Amino acid sequence: MNPTRTRLTTAVAVLGFGLQSIVAQTAPAPSGGAAPDAAVKLDPFSVSASSDVGFVAANSLAGGRIATALKDTPVAYSVLTSEFLEAFNINDAGKAADFSVNTNQYVNDGLQGVQGNTTVVVRIRGQAANTPTRNFFPYAIAADSYNVDRIDFARGANASLFGAGGSAGTLNTVSKQALTNKTIREVRLQVGSWDNYRVTVDLNQPINEKIALRTNLLWSDGETWRQREFEARKGFTMAATYNVTPKLTMRAEYEFRTTDKTSGTNRSKDNTSAWDGKFMPAGLDPAMTPAQMAVAGVVRQVQRFVRDPDNSRSAYNTQNMFVTRGAAYNAANTNYLNGKPIRSVGLNIGGLSMTEVWDHPDRFAATRAGSPFFVLPSRDFTPNWDDYRTYPSGTERAEDLSVYFTYKPFEGFFAELSGDRNTVERWTEYPAAGGMYNMQMDINRLKPNGDPNPYFLQPYSENMRWPPKVGQVGSLTQSQNNDPHVKEATSTQSRSESQSWS
């Protein structure tokens, strides 16, 4: 199945409007020459996008958790400001890494998310980054920009002293705070290719000169350029600020996030190239020697039970039936590739992906000659199941709660007590074993019970349909011929929780 996708020529469309006026803005000063709202001076434990100018950030907390000018911070440090994130339509920390210095998002042809992983993996200086942080507290949620003012990257060995520890570096996001001196009414709509839609809401409301509330909302849904992949996110964040006295300030933030995602890989493991395209057995052959099997490019199946797709009440033991294999060097029994002996010691084509790796004319020449059904997977193919939205390969449910108490007893002295609780529950499903799925040719003319095999000479993958049926055993071979929308029924569930105080 190759579902039709709508590709929009407009990459992103942004719509902003006010709930009380056409353009979101701060309420105008009353007539009579009244002074505009007074600026609010932040405590030294906070950084805000209000001090950034365009794409240039002014300060950071990296140098000892005190707001310090970037030019005075003793670490290689880069900041993507809110204006930069909006200008380049950067919606999460992974995409942000591709715009910073010596950092990148690790995708690796989908293998990073092949186990349903809902997070992003960022590399700094070629190494996996340390645990991501939010306001320098551990933050295990897949960061999204809907409630973020800026994204910081600390690089190098000094990050162990001025970041969150580790030699690679640290990714830190700075959250949007409730402001007592500004009213914000903003709704943004984004529409993109592959049915991508995203809506964010940012509402900041001063209650009075001491109290302010800020709400950020997220809804996004979209597919990718590959078949049967999607990601849907929903988020709610509430922030509050209370200036109890001129010397004491309290802040609190709460976030609830959900992520549902199905991701796959184009990499299909070669279990076909050694087949000579001629050997097509009509049953078991106990007399066939290892040398003869090496020439034919086949091996005997180990004990494995499969279900008959034409009769769900029947299951077969396929032990000793012949299956194709990938070409590899064998000192004892020479393997062949398109009739040519393999002499290169250590060569193992069967361990490679079938696409975009060693695309030599001999690799699948014999397979193409022997089967009219053989075709290499396209670049946008994934082995995910058809109902990939009903059964996502990964889900995430997360909460984050943080509180901050800042006290200034006299000029020049500040004290802060802050804490954070971050809870994440993930459930993941493996779309393919080990990041790749095995692709073979069904060369058996007969089923194990002697009936004609209706899937003769068709490609198949030994994995289980999703969702698995009660009583289903083993893996599906003949029953899965020419049906790439299959997966291994192996899942994991994890829960992470961190509590920090500073």
Provide an overview of this structure:
The chain has 502 residues and is mostly beta strands. It is built from 5 helices and 27 strands. The two termini are 54 Å apart. The protein has helices at 82-87, 93-97, 159-162, 290-296, 365-370; strands spanning 59-60, 68-69, 76-80, 103-105, 122-124, 127-128, 133-134, 137-138, 148-155, 169-175, 184-192, 196-206, 211-223, 230-243, 248-262, 268-270, 298-300, 305-308, 311-317, 322-324, 336-337, 340-341, 394-410, 413-429, 437-441, 459-460, 491-501. It has a domain at 49-175: TonB-dependent receptor, plug domain (Ferric Hydroxamate Uptake Protein, Chain A, domain 1, Beta Complex).
* CATH H-level homologous superfamily name of the domain at 49-175: TonB-dependent receptor, plug domain
How many angstroms does the end-to-end distance come to?
54 Å
Instruction: Identify the CATH class of the domain at 49-175.
Output: Mainly Beta
> How much of the residues is beta strand, in percent?
25-35%
- Overall structural class, as computed from helix and strand content, comes to mainly beta
The description of the largest β-sheet is: 8 strands, antiparallel
Morphology call: elongated
Which ranges are low-confidence, i.e. pLDDT below 50, for 5 or more consecutive residues? 1-36, 464-491
| Tally of DSSP helical segments | 5
Give, in spatial order, the strands making up the sheet with the most strands.
Answer: 11-12-13-14-15-23-24-27
Question: Helix proportion of residues, in percent?
Answer: under 10%
The total of beta strands comes to: 27
